[in-house]
Amino acid sequence: MSITSEQREEIRQTRATSSQTLRPTVAALEEILYEPFQVLDHGFVRVIDYMGDDSAVVQAARVSYGRGTKKVSEDRGLIMYLMRHWHTTPFEMADIKFHVKLPIFVARQWIRHRTASVNEYSARYSILDKEFYIPEQQHLAAQSSSNRQGRGEVLEGDEARRVLEILREDAERTYSNYAWMLNEPSDEQAPDEDRSGLARELARMNLTLNTYTQWYWKANLHNLMGFLRLRADPHAQYEIRVYAEAMLEIMSRWVPLSHEAFVEHRMGSASLSRTAITAVRRMIAGEKLTAATSGLSPREWRELCQTMGIEQV
Amino acid sequence: MSITSEQREEIRQTRATSSQTLRPTVAALEEILYEPFQVLDHGFVRVIDYMGDDSAVVQAARVSYGRGTKKVSEDRGLIMYLMRHWHTTPFEMADIKFHVKLPIFVARQWIRHRTASVNEYSARYSILDKEFYIPEQQHLAAQSSSNRQGRGEVLEGDEARRVLEILREDAERTYSNYAWMLNEPSDEQAPDEDRSGLARELARMNLTLNTYTQWYWKANLHNLMGFLRLRADPHAQYEIRVYAEAMLEIMSRWVPLSHEAFVEHRMGSASLSRTAITAVRRMIAGEKLTAATSGLSPREWRELCQTMGIEQV
Amino acid sequence: MSITSEQREEIRQTRATSSQTLRPTVAALEEILYEPFQVLDHGFVRVIDYMGDDSAVVQAARVSYGRGTKKVSEDRGLIMYLMRHWHTTPFEMADIKFHVKLPIFVARQWIRHRTASVNEYSARYSILDKEFYIPEQQHLAAQSSSNRQGRGEVLEGDEARRVLEILREDAERTYSNYAWMLNEPSDEQAPDEDRSGLARELARMNLTLNTYTQWYWKANLHNLMGFLRLRADPHAQYEIRVYAEAMLEIMSRWVPLSHEAFVEHRMGSASLSRTAITAVRRMIAGEKLTAATSGLSPREWRELCQTMGIEQV
Amino acid sequence: MSITSEQREEIRQTRATSSQTLRPTVAALEEILYEPFQVLDHGFVRVIDYMGDDSAVVQAARVSYGRGTKKVSEDRGLIMYLMRHWHTTPFEMADIKFHVKLPIFVARQWIRHRTASVNEYSARYSILDKEFYIPEQQHLAAQSSSNRQGRGEVLEGDEARRVLEILREDAERTYSNYAWMLNEPSDEQAPDEDRSGLARELARMNLTLNTYTQWYWKANLHNLMGFLRLRADPHAQYEIRVYAEAMLEIMSRWVPLSHEAFVEHRMGSASLSRTAITAVRRMIAGEKLTAATSGLSPREWRELCQTMGIEQV
């Protein structure tokens, strides 16, 4: 992971000083506050700050005084109810802030989630580090033949070797040309006094999309779940899914009841269309349906069979 | 203020238990956490939770590790710079959550600020208390004759007396009819067993707009300032301005550097149009301008004279 | 309906002049453009402008040139697919603008949908008309005994009569006191020269929540559907549902394919939790479940039985 | 410009068919509807659709019937007033949709404007064309020595030549390796039957940030102005500013009154802090200020001198 020893020391120091607060505090999250969770080869996710916990959700739903009811069992039932019925506003009442290091092509997907606050490292202003994502061989997948935005089998042998070589060489070369064009002093080279050096905001265009960037990303629990629902899904691209999985793990420490409800009613749920409901009613009544008799499109029928664990006919 | 003794006790208890946290903590805000600040006759504002402080703004601007730089003087300069140049995203990195009790007509203005999270007491679900806003006589202003959405002189004598009487009587009567239609058990009346009682979601329509409601309202610092800039302004309606003023006071405890920059570059600032800049240049060069020679519309000229403290000609 | 004859004439004139445009145009929507659809006793909804149609959704999904493919059958399949898989961004690419007249308590629910543009008639600036919502007797429902935010049986006899009397009398009296406090010239009264008249921004607080207001409300198709999904739902309060139903009807004229997909995959759909999927799998396999053996909470089991049309045990 | 002859033909056909509409129509915008405006070497901006015009702003401000007042002079004054006083909601009532082709590093800046709707060409799903931005030599600027995110002098001679060579060679090589890894049939190569081909979602990471992408981007007039205010500003990076300038030109065709007000009160305006107002008052009164006596920070004093066209002392 690309945490320098200096940064490690800074994290250690930050974790060494605690304060008293009257705010709701989550012990399981405090345990890992500031600590980086490694993701991909050089990336990480770490929690920088948070506000509220499961009781903030309950409190908002009750618009009551104090820290809500005492019985966890009632809170759990209420949170399950809110999640099941898409009463989403109480989940906006808790916030979390992450520091994330991630490849640019992942950042481009991530940023499409608009209802979050973001401050990214600026390559207009500063110089990007020489760090880029190179997949492990087991993640070098072929294009899926059935799904235009999916992955198929893992590449093997010469093809895999050559792909890794290309990714590494091209990233190395474009980065080294980036550094040359900048003509700035670094550990590896002294600037050439005869050259002006290209502006940073221009030189960066020579970098490849697997170069790492970093940002602070803050979202409320509702919008975090919107992100996780799409990005922790098996259909999400592997390289963003691993970030979402780390964040889902963090969410279970932070708001365990909301996490449970989220897994039950979002991650593991299925939506049935009007016609699919009719099909399921007939199946429950004992009828054997086929693609042809289901009333559904072939694709929706296939998906329904998968959800219901029945053999497609 | 409409805090019951039971609520006071609950606040006292909540304030009695503190925890350890590794998060940034603001002592001046902890001092008043949960405590209600009275606003209008029955309203209040109180802070329920917060995340981050001035250093969160600095940290986001620097996208650096740890809690930002050590020197407060540098942080102050950076925050001033960000505010002056409308670099707004770092101010999104700190959040605050309020519990507010306010008249419905104030809530209707307030809710137009869309980038906040809100959970309001539901009169569909619960019964509203018998509390309504009656202005103090000194705030019973006449319609302004020059500004269609402004106030003029204070009403006096019989007219003032009669207005207060009307406001009180109409609110009392409509509330008492609301209670009658609900036909629910209360301290003041037993339900009439022969009646069904009107649904709460319907009965509420009989209440007047000065009835108090309450909500949790959470915003990040950037959006809080957007709210304060409009609502703590002298042109804002008095009844919402007093809430904004209480929140501005709270903001100065929470993020003193951002508060200072906000007062300097937003609250006390003025925007000059292209043509107004030309007019000011000429005045600095010693020219005496009049409405006619300024190049500005009469109204903009008047506003410029006020800003620059010069006599209108 | 509260359209004055002057307004009718204005609508007639606006509809009398058409222009040539190269933009996509929807004949079925042009037919009713500007025309008010009556809702409740004095309210209405009318379309003021629109941008795009079903092909805008298709075009965005394909990010292709021109007006998309020629075959409606392919467009229909794509729109169904997008809706089923919650690919929501293409539905943001079409917009519609409404002019709505509605009671204030309905406006208060409506405005909670934040991702829309709104300009409301200002009672700070202008004087509200003497129009308030009085329910028809068949909609005077009692409080539901099972659902705290629902309606039960319709009130009858004396109770109903008295409720209607109260609603009418209180609205009349508070409005007439509002007018008196304003002391402005009107058709019904000359101002009292000895009085200053209360500022409009204050006088309005005496009005009841069933007073009508009006606004322009613009949303893109995605956010319109977010609104309709909640507000055209049988659990929505009747008084906002009738607006949503009128808008759903308008939507079917505007974007018939998206409307069909919306009814199929949103309005008529059901979401099954992880546990509910297991329960349905067992039922499809022939098992007879009961509340006790289903693994679901009593409430979720009841809802699942309703969805699947099976008798609760 | 990278419009193929096939696309040209499609645009020609689309422009050949017009319809009748009752909606407000802007002749000057219809003239250029669908037509690409070239930006940079391979980019473009073109208007795909629009809704409303200056009268939509006026109408929303008046919440009145029909198409607003007849006199353009009154509309102009109202729009100037709204702009000057930051009454922004009426400007949300008109929308415009663009089709834009732009380098990825420009897209990364652009997307930070969150309140817009976007559909981007997906390199997960499709193959990107071989097109990348190579600056003209006159835009090959050195890093500014005074401003960390600015440009200095233009590079010359060998350094400029070498930079252009690098940018071209690296983009060519990474693209050609991208194509090789994909192993898909193209005009230039037949796929190698012995290889599987890397998934598109992975292969794209080898592309450099100057590769062109494209998207549909829709915003309302208020948010469009938010974008233009930052991106048509002289401090914006040249490569995004040229897009903003083309859009500003388009805006002047679409909403000429709003455009005039925007130039007067936003683009050409200046904001004076509380302290700067005091300084200007003193200068108008005839006092000669210096950095030391102005009360301002050196940087703010320098900016004020520039705005007021006075010599810095």
UniProtKB/TrEMBL annotation, chains A, B, C, D:
SUPFAM superfamilies on file: Thymidylate synthase-complementing protein Thy1
Binding annotation for dUMP: Q109, W110, I111, R112, E120, Y121, S122, A123, R124, R204, R231
Parts of the chain that traverse the membrane: none
One Pfam family per UniProt: Thy1
Keyword line: FAD, Flavoprotein, Methyltransferase, NADP, Nucleotide biosynthesis, Transferase
Superkingdom of the source species: Bacteria
Top EC category: transferase
Reaction it catalyzes: dUMP + (6R)-5,10-methylene-5,6,7,8-tetrahydrofolate + NADPH + H(+) = dTMP + (6S)-5,6,7,8-tetrahydrofolate + NADP(+)
GO biological process: methylation
Subunit relationships: Homotetramer.
NCBIfam families referenced in this protein's UniProt entry, alphabetically: thyX
Record's function text: Catalyzes the reductive methylation of 2'-deoxyuridine-5'-monophosphate (dUMP) to 2'-deoxythymidine-5'-monophosphate (dTMP) while utilizing 5,10-methylenetetrahydrofolate (mTHF) as the methyl donor, and NADPH and FADH(2) as the reductant.
Similarity comment: family membership: Belongs to the thymidylate synthase ThyX family.
The protein's name: Flavin-dependent thymidylate synthase
Organism for this UniProt entry: Bosea massiliensis
